[in-house]
Amino acid sequence: MTRSTSSTTLTESDICIVGNGAIAKTAALGFSRAGHSVTLLVPPAAPAPAPDAVDTWDARVYALNHTAHTLLASLKVWDALDQSRIAPVDTMVVNGDGAQPGDLAFDAFGAHVAALAWIVEDRNLNQALDAALKFAQNVHVVSGRAVKLDNSESGATVHLDTGPAIRSKLLVGADGGQSWVRGQCDIGIDYRSYHQRAIVTNFSCEKPHHGAAFQWFTGEEGIIALLPLPGQRVSLVWSAPDDLAATIMNESLGELAVRLAVYCEDQLGPLRPLQPESVKAIPLSLIRPHAIVAPAVALIGDAAHVVHPLAGHGMNLGFADVADLLAAVAGREAQRSIGDERVLARYARSRQEDIFLMQLATDGLARLFSVNLEPVRMARNLGLNLLDKFPMLKRRLMSHAMGK
């Protein structure tokens, strides 16, 4: 891998990837391993934050499924992760709300797999990807700010604010939910705010979690998930209505632990904030782009879809995007360019069903469990209980969620 700041020269490569997150880095590594020259355009470097102490835990974690695991393993990244900081999910327990809450449980044994998912910190994942990219011979990292995109069937040219340009046969937009690439391609979106914020932080728990992930659909207070971390630690993702989120963010983490005790004390015992106290609140929305391809352009990750985090699959959709785009490019006919219209159409078709089903499921559940009428509450809890009694249907749901 080579790294440079922007200059007055024109950079040419097979593929240009815009973005600096885990999905962008994975795509760069995947195309590099496939023998393509790659330019990774990242934002100008910000001042480096002070390094975290070794024993701190990242507030941002991902529940990576089997699709993500397989892709990262094929790129020699999975084994480079700090395995001591990864927690396998052996069981998933979903709880309804109300006086007679429904419940639903999934387990790895019933799915005939070693784990339903793996909880991985954002820092652990990005450090492993950065290390792998250092040894990628045909990845050129350019630090700069894109200001204009010219794209056509023959390729794409990204112009930077300092004058130079990056020309490629295929431009990959991996630049997040507010994607600059998507906007430059005039791809419209359907947008809706959930009027919720995802509150994320970590706790230690008095009782062992035994690899279980817990989720509570609480109705008025939103959706609470506690995910296992190594040892007797858990990671919180609380999708809370805006007003409640503002209240929680003005309280101490000790007070947040008291709020959570109502739901989890029987299973996990008292919670205690991990030090240093760290908590984030992330606005939640649904973003549906009207297309995920344009001439010589493909969108991946949050640039291609933003979903509610209640299922924990936003990052997994992004890894599946990378896998399918790599497959579409690798499977093209010899006479077709990397950015050929038919190649990109195959990528778009391959992603259509997976993205649609995940958006439908997460949006539908978020809407359903935000209704606080008692008849609706009774019906959804009944649905959870009934689903728990149909092993074949549960296995199909688990298989789709695991990416198998």
Walk me through the structure.
This protein is of the alpha/beta class and 404 residues long. The strands form three sheets. Strands 1, 2, 3, 9, 10, 11, 12, 19 and 20 form a nine-stranded mixed β-sheet that branches. It has two domains: 2-50 and 125-190 and 287-365, FAD/NAD(P)-binding domain (3-Layer(bba) Sandwich), CATH 3.50.50; 74-122 and 191-284 and 373-402, D-Amino Acid Oxidase, Chain A, domain 2, CATH 3.30.9.10. The protein has helices spanning 22-33, 66-74, 108-111, 122-134, 180-184, 242-249, 253-268, 314-330, 341-368, 374-388, 391-402; strands at residues 2-5, 10-18, 38-42, 61-64, 87-89, 91-95, 103-107, 117-121, 139-143, 146-152, 155-160, 165-173, 189-205, 212-217, 223-229, 233-241, 271-273, 280-289, 293-294, 297-299. It is globular. The two termini are 32 Å apart. The protein is built from eleven helices and 20 strands. The model has no long low-confidence stretch (mean pLDDT 88).
Work out the number of β strands.
Answer: 20
In percent, how much strand structure appears in the residues? 25-35%
Percent helix among the residues? 25-40%
The geometry reads as globular
Provide key terms for this protein:
2 domains; D-Amino Acid Oxidase, Chain A, domain 2; 34% helix; 404 residues; FAD/NAD(P)-binding domain
What's the gist of this structure?
The protein has 404 residues and is α/β, with parallel strands linked by helices. It has eleven helices and 20 strands.
List the helices and strands and how they pair.
Layout (H helix, E strand, L loop, with lengths): L1 E4 L4 E9 L3 H12 L4 E5 L18 E4 L1 H9 L12 E3 L1 E5 L7 E5 H4 L5 E5 H13 L4 E5 L2 E7 L2 E6 L4 E9 L6 H5 L4 E17 L6 E6 L5 E7 L3 E9 H8 L3 H16 L2 E3 L6 E10 L3 E2 L2 E3 L14 H17 L10 H28 L5 H15 L2 H12 L2
Parallel strand pairs: 1-9, 2-3, 2-12, 3-9, 6-14, 12-20
Antiparallel strand pairs: 4-8, 5-8, 6-7, 10-11, 11-12, 13-16, 13-17, 13-18, 14-15, 15-16, 19-20
